[in-house]
Amino acid sequence: MKLEFDPAEYLPLREVVFKTLRNAIIRGELPPGDRLMEEKLAKNLEVSRTPVREAIRMLELEGLVVMLPRKGAEVARITVTDLQEALEVRMAIEDLSVRLASMRIDDEGKKRLIQAKEAFDAALLKKDVVKIVEKDERFHDVIFEATKNRRLINLAHSLREQVYRYRYEYVKDFSSHDKLSREHARITEAILAGDVVKAQQSMRGHINDQLQRIMEMIEMENEMLKPENREG
């Protein structure tokens, strides 16, 4: 598999390699448990081993890669515990965000929220997973911005890096798309109406549904990995 790599980006080489590997992990091109061999990756990306080594260290800090004794770097596996911890924090941040947004959103913010909701629905129709995640992030970003609380916005953006892979896994399930659209619609309607209680209830349900569905997916994958369930 040839990884997508754009050396023309105006960034240090290690940053370009980092972004390339990060996207490959998030999109499942480098699945959980895959070994990250510096020499092999350097050859694939046509760079030296140094930026690859530096990029792997950056990925380890994000929790996307783990270093194992006598084995080296490996794409981190998604565990139920990791998921619960990340989404519990996200639940608290999103809950506060919709409460503040419902009280503070202005006319321009309402316009952006409606546009973000429509853009998300358009991405769902095209079934482009990368675009769906991108538009989903934008929808939630508009809500964060509507809080007019810079500290909250910065914290939400920091957490986003940790839950991105979980969100990507969730939207790959096309059967969930109609439900996602309805949930975004309820959240939008509540915020536009200034209904704090409904906004919080809708957001809690939205995040909790993701938690439950991804937990089911992880448990199914773990079951398939058991020796007695492997083919051959």
Structure overview:
The chain is mostly helical. Helices cover 72% and strands 3% of the residues. The protein contains nine helices and two strands; from the N terminus they run αααββαααααα. It has helices at 13-26, 38-45, 49-62, 80-104, 107-126, 129-146, 150-171, 177-193, 196-225, and strands at residues 65-68, 72-75. A two-stranded antiparallel sheet has the order 1-2. Strand 1 (65-68) and strand 2 (72-75) form a beta hairpin. Helix 1 (13-26) packs across helix 3 (49-62), helix 4 (80-104) packs across helix 7 and helix 4 (80-104) packs parallel to helix 8. The protein is globular. It starts with 12 loop residues before the first helix and ends in a 7-residue tail after the last helix. The model has no long low-confidence stretch (mean pLDDT 87).
Q: What would a concise description of this structure say?
A:
By secondary structure, the protein is mainly alpha-helical. The protein has helices at residues 13-26, 38-45, 49-62, 80-104, 107-126, 129-146, 150-171, 177-193, 196-225; strands at 65-68, 72-75.
Unreliable stretches covering 5 or more consecutive residues: none
Oligomeric organization of the protein chains: single chain
Average per-residue pLDDT, rounded, comes to 87
Strand element count = 2
User: Span from first to last CA?
Assistant: 25 Å
Using the CA coordinates, give the radius of gyration.
19 Å
Helix share bin? over 70%
Q: Helices and strands, in N-to-C order?
A: HHHEEHHHHHH
Largest sheet: 2 strands, antiparallel
